[in-house]
Amino acid sequence: MFSPALLWQAPEVNPVNHKARSIPGLNPINVYGRVFTFSWFGFMVAFWSWYAFPPLLTLTIAKDLKLSTVDVANSNIIALVATLLVRLVAGPACDRFGPRYTFAACLLAGSLPTALAGAVANAKGLLALRFFIGILGGAFVPCQVWSTGFFDKNIVGSANALTAGFGNSGGGITYFLMPAIFDSLVSRQHLTPHVAWRVAFIVPFIVIVAVSIALVLCCPDTPTGKWSERHLKVKHNLEIHGISGTVVDVPGDVTDQKASSPGSQSPSADEKSGFHDRKGSFTEGEAQLGEQQMVEVARGEVIAKPTFKEAMPVVFSLPTLAVAGHYFSSFGTELSVNSILGAYYLVNFPSLGQTGTGRWAAMFGLLNIVFRPLGGFISDAIYRRFSVWGKKFFMHFMGIVLGVFLIAIGTTDPYNRNTMFGLIAGMAFFLEAGNGANFSLVPHVHPYANGIVSGCTGAAGNFGGIIFAIIFRYLGKDYAKAFWIIGIIAIALNLALSWIRPIPKGQIGGH
Length: 511
Hints:
The protein has helices at 31-50, 54-65, 69-97, 99-115, 123-133, 140-150, 156-168, 170-187, 193-200, 202-218, 230-240, 252-255, 269-278, 291-300, 308-315, 318-348, 353-366, 368-412, 417-441, 450-474, 479-497. The chain is mainly α. Mean pLDDT is 83; it is low at 246-279.
């Protein structure tokens, strides 16, 4: 039963891995609330800078650099290529080094090309710069892996949907911020447009660097402490609750280390007497789980360091393919539409101008604040009644209806503002809520390799964005035709993948 107090109270935790069973999102003092805040805010500033070019690209930057429509389309495509590659690498990196440092690395690496935007002088320079700024899009993977590591199965869909939804809103916020910063530099600082758009990119650079440093200094790797000691802490927590034996496979390089905190050291003789007295009991704030449930969590849901040989069966398993395929169609659509929506509005509603069309295009991204979390909330509610199969069918249902809306936009090509904005809002609901439903299901699929599954799924979304951006590029200003083509792809793909089991048969954990 939901209570508003859960938004700020210290949450009840899983006794084995100490994952929270509620989201204290309004309490950044609490460690769970703090990680939640940095997860969404870190990805939001990354998304803001990643998509900082499109709001100014169609008119200001295109005019300054003498870009053709093809040059603009090519830059939108190249911005997604780097993100695809980074997401594939970021997944295993999260499993090996932990999501916190992977997150900070993505932000810092992407901040440098952001600061160098002023050095661009031609179309080739723009392509090179947008490729490297695309590193920021890879921050999505550690954002979701970090969130999954702090919130338990009963609430992880909502947590992931909130962090991703708030983060994705950066794609809408950038349509407000970048034109506003540019207009301010021109009108108040009296800079020329040639200089103003270049100076504008210094703002996201400063914010990204500040957030990445704060993220490392203020937050832990896991609810139990250091990433390198996660197996030891789980084993220790099991022993406290009276479960011993070889339950958790602890890697050799971890067991060879000394734990940095007293909680993971071998207890002394005096401590042992108290230790045995506590066996089998639950402390205040711990969820009451049965022994079998705790063993399943320990065996199947503690992330392992991946090897190439172990990773390949995860990457090519059918459940991974199902979530990746859905995300290809849903998030791929979001990325490609984010890049062209302002230009599409400018064609159908030229009287709105660059700033007006930018603001209306921003609504599409900003709806993530509501719609993506809503998808996660609904998915978690369905899970409590119908298990993981319910989550999977809900995800594919959203993908199919998304396709219907895309076809409706493409076939009507509205020149009436109410019709256009209404159809885009409807499409946004099924697209963004579907994305939330997707990463509500991802933590259940191979939970011991969550980074790999998250990386593959996120990369598939980027691959979809590249394919759909290519469709927009070759159709030029015939945006409506591209919409209905993408709609057909979305429907066909979701129908084709709907029969696959949500999790592998016989999987331990994740149920």
